[in-house]
Design brief:
Order of helices and strands: HHHHHHH
Strand content: under 5%
CATH topology of the largest domain: Cytochrome Bc1 Complex, Chain D, domain 2
Number of strands: 0
Oligomer: single chain
CATH architecture of the largest domain: Orthogonal Bundle
Length: 158
């Protein structure tokens, strides 16, 4: 009677070869999971809102006073340094609700903004405008990208 001996490849038993194969397959699965986790973290780190939609809302509603690039005109201030100093919630409150530029003349106001200069328009409350109200997060995303330098003054690429 003939007895089969275990096949040995490169000095490894069949059990050792299968164990190494299982480890290498398991290592690939972990790598895929790590890539997915890294992608999820990168996605979560992005600001909510669409920069492209925010640009359109800005051009349609804000550019006439603040300039097409949000860098200010004689009518309204440069928004870039202002947005850089505030979070999304504060931005939404300032844009959607009317605030008094002259609350504390000469030293800024309760909102922490510079006082309105002679000839500058009073900032309107935008909460009753359905487009601005619906896209306030997009507007913040656009102005934040501008203030951080990740978006230039022109129309964003979609």
């Amino acid at each position: 009677m003939h007895t089969a001996k275990p096949h040995r490849a490169s000095g490894l038993s069949l059990a050792s070869t299968l164990a190494l194969l299982a480890l290498s397959v398991g290592g690939c699965a972990v790598e895929i999971q790590n890539k997915q986790g890294a992608q999820e973290i990168a996605q979560a780190a992005k600001l909510p809102g669409s920069v492209a939609v925010g640009w359109r809302v800005f051009q349609d509603n804000c550019a006439a006073c603040h300039g097409a690039a949000a860098s200010g005109t004689v009518k309204a201030p440069n928004l870039l340094p202002l947005v850089q100093q505030m979070g999304a919630e504060r931005f939404a409150n300032l844009v959607l609700k009317r605030y008094d530029w002259a609350a504390t003349p000469g030293s800024g106001n309760a909102a922490g903004l510079s006082p309105r200069l002679p000839g500058q328009a009073q900032m309107p409350a935008w909460q009753s405008d359905p487009v601005v109200n619906a896209h306030i997060v997009d507007l913040y995303a656009y102005l934040s990208a501008r203030s951080e330098g990740t978006q230039g003054p022109g129309q964003p690429q979609r």
